[in-house]
Amino acid sequence: MAAGSKIENLLWEQPPPTRPSLSLPTIATAAIAIADADGIDAVSMQRVAGDLGFTKMSLYRYVSSKSDLVAVMIERAVGDPPDLSAVQGWRPKLEELARLVAEVWARHPWLPWVTMGDRMMGPREIGWSEAAVGALAGTGLTGGERLDAALLLFGHLRNTQSLATAGTQPWAEDRGASPALAQLLDRHASRFPSLVDALADAKDAPADSGRAFGLACVLDGLAARINARAS
Length: 231
Description:
Blueprint: H1 5-11, H2 24-38, H3 45-52, H4 56-59, H5 66-77, H6 90-107, H7 111-114, H8 123-135, H9 143-164, H10 179-187, H11 193-200, H12 211-230
């Protein structure tokens, strides 16, 4: 069998035979529950099998490795791609898409980190990219620009998702500095005057790690390019 064909079969709806009470969807659902509760590193064939009441060897009839299991988890966790046909205008479409992506990632915080890199993707996951690129149809952007815009959008969402994860940044939820950083800045304020000034003026800023602001900037940039192309 050609390289990659086994995982392709798993993702593209060609499941192996099932046993009573055990199936690929059941395995994926149990693995997702573990990842949601304890993080992706907590997922193992042994842990999933134990939670389901089966031996680890039973799982190997369905997935041959943890990497294959993660691929199936991704395809199940992302859910069906959105139908944006009822949303009018490319900008509202992308705003709605961004909102839905954020919802999915909030439910499954491990998803942004396992969906990076060169790997096999399933039809549901690809469908999200299709929705992003399709939202820009008829805007006058070239195919390459539409693809780049989708990458830029997902990249921005992934970056702000990382900043929203507890323990990944020194800033408090109100956009102020954490206590440790605040003490450093107090002692060295003259060295970082711009940062101190900005933090002092940011107390009422939305605590979304810049997601809404960055999204507006991305879409404003696309709008400028689209309008320039139209004229």
